[in-house]
Fold these 2 entries.
Entry 1:
Amino acid sequence: MDSRPHAAEQASALGDAARASCRLADLGPKPYLGGGRDPRLQHPGYRFGVDLGGTKIESLLLDHEGTELWRKRIPTPRGDYAGTLRVIAALCNEARDAHPQAAHCSVGLGIPGSLGPDGKVRNANSVWLNGMPFGADLERTLGQPVVMANDANCLALSESADGAGRDAETVFAVILGTGVGGGLVVHRRLWQGTSGLAGEWGHVALPWPRSDWGECPGPKCWCGRTGCIEGFLSGPGLARDAGRTDGDALQTLTAAQSWKPLESTTREICDTSAENAAGEAVDRYLDRLARGLAMVINIVDPEVIVLGGGMSQFRRIYQEVPERWHAWIFSDRPVNTRLLPARHGDASGVRGAAWLGAQGRR
Ligand SMILES: [Zn+2]
């Protein structure tokens, strides 16, 4: 049955949403970074994006419609701060040389990690960036403004711009990978919050914890707390939970110690029967994801929730999680939120970084 509201109700709801988000837009958000207003960021037309990972740097150039004009991937100069700045500047110049009409393109940068309100990098797996004002230094190197965000925010922007959430006014995006993070886009604008914390969904406690499932207090998190959502819903979190009830899986996962074998192992786990211990771990995973997303719906009530990252590839999520989340949502009727996989997959990081340039600054 179609549970979406009638057209008049929808129009009214959209009108309310529009008024609400206008108020939000008037107050902020405040996407990074320092520097002054630059007219090239307001209507740049061409957008250069960089996804700075721990092992590779992905870069591309988009036109104003999101068409990819140029793309290049290079190894990350690990441990070399000045070298990282240098190769990103070289990539940007190479793209501009190939497409001279994009000489005044905006530049956006995505990193796996987070940014402090001061623009300094925190918790990046490219550890040589931590504590450094990488965005400001890249601005000096390039001689132009740079907009910077974490990978979950880039996913949210990319999928909102022309991905799974392209028709939605509000999009909450979640990365379920080696880590877990979230990002919120309202009316195509990234909402980062007054302290740059919006969307840090991975480091809130798993809601409605079950002691019989080992959720109280839950696993110790690298952030210093216990029971964080990331500890349960990351790939390593599922592996740990499966290992607790399946010795063979634990040995396999412990021996692997890297994402790729872990991913293939967890796929095997997801394909096995619910009768075995690994299947039970997957069942707990789906229940935990439903609870975590129900909390998001109770607070934000987004039109679309988009999932990215390695764990997002499991099809059962999209059928079973919406069936389960109703038990935890404060509503006596079905909600309209749609749960969808990322349309652009792994490319959402670099595409979202490019779309950052269209965010401008205030
Ligand atoms: Zn944590």
Entry 2:
Amino acid sequence: MLGGVSKAFGDLRVLTDIDLSVGAGQRVGIIGLNGAGKTTLFHVISGLEPPTRGRVVLFGREVTRTSPSGRAALGLSRTFQVTLLYPRLTVRENVEVALLGSTYRRYRLRLWRPLRTHGDLRTRSRELLETFGLWPLANVEVRHLSYGHQRQLEITLAIAVDPALLLLDEPTAGLSVAEMAAMRRLLASLPRHLTVLVVEHHLEVIFELVERVLVLHQGSIIMDGPPSAVRTDRQVQDLYFGAHAAAQVARQTGGGVLNADRRDEWTKGQADRREEWNRGH
Ligand SMILES: Nc1ncnc2c1ncn2[C@@H]1O[C@H](COP(=O)(O)OP(=O)(O)OP(=O)(O)O)[C@@H](O)[C@H]1O
Ligand SMILES: [Mg+2]
């Protein structure tokens, strides 16, 4: 997937000489402190940022200079931090738009069964929403959904295009406890044939979902192994507990370090405010 990939923004070296190969159907978690380079890694894989050095290969093809849409056409799909939904369309209409957008390029490139009729579209959107537990909300306009449901819908749309590789950047960020449980169920029900790379700060979410965990630290992969090995690894524990201690010091001294610990507080605050807003509408 990646061969000798480095990425710098000016003098700032964000990724250094990353080699990574991921088998078809593998589920891989990526963890690491804030600023470790996780999102940048996703940008390089999906084509939003060119690497400074190295090669990107997807599905056996070199795509280092291929556009994001070209990579999507090969079978890559991803979610973003910002919501890319149509707020005034219903949940079901959003899925149907995603399905329509995917049909043409799939038909061309993979001879994937095209949606020939209106009936096909209706059936497929219903199947998808039922699979991910969103069918009861099918006729609700997206702007009326809770934040948690919007994030679930984003993943549903990312799956609607029938990708082979899915990149999820912090699917549980900002969710309340109840929303988090629903998201964990959704993640567990992702199709088994799908290759999934998921960045997460909630380690328990990662550990239950994936069979392989990469630890990214200051732009390098410092560990690559099964969850059981990563969970008990001394270096990883030092990293996370070290961050925890640093956060406490920062709080006591009024410092502004935004590390994993403080971010959780921040995202929880966001979720609480969103829930308040949702209740008021
Ligand atoms: N477009 C950019 N220009 C300059 N610097 C950038 C850019 N994008 C990211 N960076 C820097 O690269 C480093 C890694 O950022 P990145 O977003 O990849 O981290 P991350 O591991 O995803 O962190 P988080 O857990 O907070 O999401 C950070 O220091 C960030 O400020
Ligand atoms: Mg990030």
